[in-house]
Amino acid sequence: MLTLLKVTLVALLNFMYLTLFKASKIKKMSRDKAPFAARKELKKLSERIIKAAKINLEVVYLDEAAYKKMKLEDGIVVVANHSSNLDIPVIVTALSIPVGFVAKKEMENWPFYSMWMKMSNCIFLDRSNPREGIKSIRKAVEIVKQGYPTVIFPEGERTLTGEVGNFKKGSFKLATETNGIILPLTIDGTFFVQNRKSILMKPNRKVRLTVGKPIDLRKINQENSKNISEIVRELVVKEME
User: Fold this and answer.
1) Backbone dihedral angles phi then psi of residue 55, each to the nearest 5 degrees
2) Cα pseudo-dihedral 42, 56, 81, 177, rounded to 10
3) Confidence band, pLDDT 50/70/90 cuts, at residue 33
4) 55 in the Ramachandran plot: left (φ > 0), alpha (ψ -120 to 50) or beta?
5) Which pLDDT tens digit goes with each residue over 181-212?
6) Distance between CA atoms of 143 and 124, rounded to whole angstroms?
7) What is the predicted pLDDT for the residue at 68?
8) C-alpha to C-alpha distance for 192 and 190, rounded to whole angstroms
9) Which of 74, 141, 153, 163 has an alpha carbon 20 to 30 Å from 32's alpha carbon atom?
């Protein structure tokens, strides 16, 4: 309980500080620079959350050279498994590229969080409304094409068992319609820090984030393109301990 309270307090105080002292400055920036500035501030916040949760974060690259060669303007879609609410700060902390997220519609009502998500060019997806969901994905495609890397969790929700669930094919429309680069991530360990079964957090746990080899959708054949959800899921599952 103590860790949960500490993490909650760190997040709340930092969001309040950012809103009071950083938001107005960022809002005055140009449309192309403001999202990156917001994402930079959210990275600092994420690092503080990881520290408060006492997570021992290890980042492993399967092809670091290919990762560093990626260009934002090529359109980067980050695909990861989803085990915990801590997956988001783990990803933001681990990656050097400035990522935003496709988040569930319910988060749009969260205080502070919602405003900063919007400022950083994140997308809220209503999975219960297919028509609105398509509109959100199309908007996300444009954002990715403009050079803002975006993370999506194709399972749609956090796992209940710790096992990687099915990757919904619809989630990959963001990547296939962008026709850019998929960056697979495997998050291993956040389930044992905090998961859907309990809001409590267990400190002093090791979390390993494996950055897979980037997949350039412009260079794969039509058959692999059709089966990209299964291909990426296999890559993600392979790196689980």
Assistant:
1) -90, 130
2) 40
3) very high
4) beta
5) 999 999 999 999 999 999 899 999 999 999 99
6) 13
7) 97
8) 5
9) 153
